[in-house]
Design brief:
Bound molecules: NADP nicotinamide-adenine-dinucleotide phosphate
Helix content: 25-40%
Radius of gyration: 20 Å
Largest sheet: 9 strands, mixed
Number of strands: 15
Low-confidence stretches: none
Distance between the termini: 51 Å
Structural class: alpha/beta
Number of helices: 9
CATH superfamily of the largest domain: Dihydrodipicolinate Reductase, domain 2
Mean pLDDT: 93
CATH class of the largest domain: Alpha Beta
CATH topology of the largest domain: Dihydrodipicolinate Reductase, domain 2
Length: 336
């Protein structure tokens, strides 16, 4: 299958690598300037033998390239039109998380200080509109849509570790997710931005573990700090705690689990230089395929076999976005 990538110099180069290793061919990508395109083309040549076309406008790429799959790897505020146009052009779409977010000029104040005249569940007008536009873009039939919120791909390995120690996992009473990062520049590096950038990973795992769950809005507490945003709430019957932190100077921690059975996650190369995922609990470590590798292969499987769903499909992606919004809107900024 032919793959085109919208924005291939950041996480997009990992899409190029994993789709190529899964047997696809990256035949085109977009960049923002001719110079950036040339630099990324050289990078992809080394990474996955790229020898295709480059574009400055994704619409031209859609028009001229016989693509089967489009990866949307641009900044969140650019995602929605790109997803909608690629799906409308009949291409399968594998998009980065979060599925979308508004440009900053649409949000003139921290969400928690916005007025709530009609007390609706999503009350910031810009977010409400965006949610409806996303719902509309993703309600299609035909092409497959998947969101790259890859932590869901740890499910089976996690369950094996859990059940080896605790026995069958039948009921989920709690879910914990901690994600740290060394930090990024730009609008997603502080306050609400941390949550928007990092929470989709934890929320996607939570939705996967608790597919029947719904948010109990009155239970939400969310502290929005300059470097850490944390939230606790009830989702169905389960207690949820999520912590997202940026700008850490030590080795970033990534930890998750249900029923207080936590594993530490690490991504690194194995002894053969292949990038893998490692889950550790109580000093015992299991190595599994890289979570993005597994997610990409699942997406390709969903294209080939209609009975298979991507780990995070349209419905889960939409719920993920709605939860990001609803939890943030109930948050409080901490500026000390
Ligand atoms: N799943 C994960 O673990 C993970 C990890 C990191 C990022 N992400 C997500 O991936 C997305 C991109 O993040 P990133 O860190 O890769 O960002 P980045 O390094 O800034 O790369 C963005 C890419 O998009 C291109 N671009 C910039 N503005 C654009 C626009 N308006 N329209 C089309 N293309 C545009 C850039 O082109 P140039 O090449 O010309 O600069 C670049 O290739 C975000 O949604 C982010 O949350 C996910």
């Amino acid at each position: 299958m032919n793959v085109g990538i919208i924005g291939a110099s950041g996480i997009g180069k990992h899409h190029a690598k994993w789709f190529t290793l899964a047997g696809c061919k990256v035949t085109a990508f977009t960049g923002t300037t001719p110079e950036r395109c040339a630099a990324t083309a050289a990078l992809l040549r080394d990474l996955c033998g790229f020898g295709g076309q480059t574009y400055l406008d994704y619409r031209e790429m859609l028009e001229h390239e016989p693509l089967d799959i489009v990866c949307v790897c641009s900044p969140p505020e650019a995602h929605l039109n790109q997803i909608a146009d690629a799906l409308a052009a009949g291409r399968h779409v594998y998009a980065e998380k979060p599925v979308t977010w508004p440009p900053s000029d649409l949000l003139s104040c921290p969400l928690a200080s916005c007025p709530n005249p009609r007390a609706r569940s999503v009350f910031h007008p810009a977010l409400h509109l965006l949610l409806e536009e996303t719902r509309s873009a993703l309600s299609f039939s035909g092409p497959v849509f998947g969101l790259n919120a890859q932590y869901v791909a740890a499910r089976e390995a996690y369950r094996t570790l859990y059940e080896a120690e605790r026995g069958a996992l039948r009921h989920i009473e709690s879910f914990y997710f901690l994600l740290e990062s060394k930090g990024l520049s730009g609008r997603y590096s502080a306050f609400e931005g941390i949550w928007i950038d990092m929470a989709p990973h934890g929320l996607s795992q939570m939705i996967d573990w608790l597919p029947e769950g719904t948010l109990k809005p009155d239970t939400v507490t969310c502290d929005i700090g300059e470097e850490t945003t944390s939230a606790s709430f009830c989702y169905g019957d389960a207690r949820i705690e999520m912590v997202c932190r940026k700008n850490v100077v030590s080795i970033p921690k990534r930890r998750f689990g249900v029923n207080d059975f936590w594993v530490d996650y690490e991504g690194r190369a194995d002894e053969n230089g292949v990038y893998r995922s490692f889950l550790t609990h109580n000093g015992k470590t299991v190595m599994i395929d890289d979570l993005m590798d597994v997610s990409v292969r699942r997406f390709l499987e969903a294209i080939r076999r209609p009975e298979i769903q991507p780990f995070v499909g349209p419905q889960q992606a939409l719920e993920n976005l709605e939860l990001i919004m609803m939890i943030l809107e109930r948050g409080k900024r901490k500026t000390s």
